[in-house]
Specification:
By secondary structure, the protein is α/β, with parallel strands linked by helices. It has helices spanning 15-26, 67-70, 87-99, 122-125, 198-207, 235-239, 242-250, 253-267, 292-298, 384-398, 407-420, 436-447, 453-459, 461-469, and strands spanning 7-11, 30-35, 107-109, 111-118, 128-134, 140-146, 148-151, 158-159, 173-176, 190-194, 213-217, 224-225, 287-288, 302-304, 307-310, 314-317, 324-325, 328-331, 335-336, 349-350, 353-354, 371-373, 378-379, 433-434. Strand 10, helix 5 (198-207) and strand 11 form a beta-alpha-beta unit. The mean pLDDT is 93. It is an enzyme of class 1 (oxidoreductase).
Length: 485
């Protein structure tokens, strides 16, 4: 490639795609972004249509992490934006970010990637052949060759649908919350929402103001957190701090869970609200919702157990014998990890698990650094800064400024991560979980941008205090950084 720019193919034009594009430009690469829709912004750009294979938020969706914790590390959100941004504000933020480096210039809209495979010279070069269908040009199919590829399609695309006994008998409507857009289509209807993750809880709360009756069905129960933390601060600003992370790291697991469960129960007694699960609070992704307890208290949302079976006109819940009539059943049962454009022989997903070093690089490939999965994580915190750090890492690797560990070391790290997953109850939802600050520091170590706390303790005590006792904002990962020649 002497004298030629490194060419990078980026699949997906959402937030991760924009971060990937910027990281590549900063290293002098030539990025090309493939976006199957007619717009950028990914799942955050609301649209009324329900399109198969296309993620989209509901009309009312507000992000669960605060704006400063969600920020790009070199591009803070506007000061006048609220702490918790509505999806329209998120899209505006992404647009402003993209404008700062002319993102649209590098995006091929309505280009659907239908194939990705090693190029003929892969063994010697690590290059990839990408095949795309151009919906702007009579569905013309074109092949491209790239030195590296970044997969930025996320993990909220392919709905995971659960099947219950006698479901075929039911004459009402069954849908996944993937297709849920706005509440008015469920006005005066009796609705059962299956699943109490963020989507299920949010939908149940929103429907409670328009539907005749809302039942929230949960197999295990859940622990609830809210956006507003101590003293009215955003909860992530309050708790994601380095000094509290020390406690999280070194306190015995059961003691830590007991403390956190006590905090959660001060707001609502989970047992009295029929929400208390058998698992500990750190064995799940905590459900964030400010309004559900009020809805339960006022009877507009009724918590039920798992569905035992369907009838022609409703459902019967576990432990009950009486039929509950309902017009609609909404499945908030999560998503499958799926990459239809790449062969299972290259990247195998089993039970929603995929073996990737730091959830980015496939260790079994001959040239693992040339294929990266971005933002394929479910953190206890904001996803955006993690994706950005992964993009910076990939770009440094492709520029020859960093190198990956050996295959054996990468596999060993994957095994450690899989062992850590055992703290979560077994579920296809809990396969890509990470603790935000620990994982950010792990990635930052590879990128060479982990804050040097010891240095700041001696050289800048005020900055050290802010880093140690203040919120662990993404901006701290721009303090360090050595450009390797």
């Amino acid at each position: 490639m002497s004298g030629e720019k490194i060419r990078i193919g980026i699949i997906g034009g959402g937030a991760s795609g924009s971060m990937a594009c910027k990281a590549c430009l900063e290293e002098g690469f030539e990025p090309m972004v493939f976006e199957k829709n007619s717009y950028t912004g990914g799942l955050w750009r609301y649209h009324d249509e329900n399109i198969d294979g296309v993620a989209s938020v509901a009309k009312s969706t507000i992000i669960n992490s605060s704006k400063e914790m969600t920020a790009f590390s070199d591009f803070p959100p506007p000061k006048d934006f609220p702490n918790y941004m509505h999806n329209t504000k998120m899209v505006k933020y992404f647009d402003l970010y993209g404008e700062s480096f002319r993102y649209e210039k590098y995006v091929k809209l309505r280009h659907d990637v239908i194939g990705l495979e090693p190029n003929g010279d892969y063994d010697s070069t690590g290059r990839w052949k990408l095949t795309a269908r151009d919906h702007t040009n009579a569905d013309k199919i074109t092949e491209y060759v790239f030195d590296g590829v970044m997969i930025c399609t996320g993990h909220h695309v392919q709905p995971q649908v659960t099947t219950f006994k006698d479901q075929h008998l039911y004459t009402g409507q069954i849908a996944h919350t993937h297709s849920y857009k706005r509440p008015d289509q469920y006005t005066d209807k009796k609705v059962v929402v299956v699943g109490i993750g963020n989507s299920g809880g949010d939908v149940a709360v929103e429907l409670s103001s328009v539907s005749d009756k809302v039942y929230l069905s949960t197999r295990r129960g859940t622990w609830i957190s809210n956006r507003v933390g101590p003293y009215g601060l955003p909860s992530d600003i309050s708790f994601i701090r380095r000094h509290t992370n020390v406690l999280f790291k070194y306190l015995p697991y059961n003691i830590l869970c007991t403390i956190l469960e006590s905090v959660a129960n001060r707001r609502i007694d989970h047992e009295k609200y029929q929400l208390k699960p058998k698992h500990r609070i750190l064995s799940q992704n905590v459900f964030v919702n400010d309004a559900l307890p009020n809805c339960i208290l006022s009877g507009t949302v009724v918590v039920k157990g798992d569905i035992n079976r369907f009838t022609a006109h409703g459902v019967i819940f576990a432990g009950e014998s009486k039929e509950i009539p309902c017009d609609v059943v909404l499945m908030a049962t999560g998503y499958k990890l799926k990459f239809p454009f790449i062969s299972q022989d290259l990247i195998r997903t089993t039970n929603n698990k995929v073996e990737l070093f730091k959830y980015v690089f496939p260790p079994d490939l001959k040239h693992p650094k040339t294929l990266a999965f971005i933002s394929l994580v479910q953190p206890l915190g904001a996803t955006l800064p993690i994706g950005e750090m992964q993009c910076r890492w990939f770009a440094q690797l492709m520029a020859g400024k960093r190198s990956l560990p050996t295959r054996q070391n990468m596999l060993a790290d994957i095994a450690v991560k899989q062992h850590a997953m055992k703290r979560y109850y077994e579920s296809e939802r809990h396969t890509i979980q990470v603790d935000w600050l620990n994982f950010m520091d792990e990635l930052a170590q590879h990128v060479g941008v982990k804050p040097n706390l010891l240095k700041y303790f001696f050289q800048d005590r005020e900055l050290w205090r802010a880093l140690m006792f203040g919120p662990a904002l993404p901006y701290q990962y721009r303090l360090e950084g050595i450009i390797l020649d």
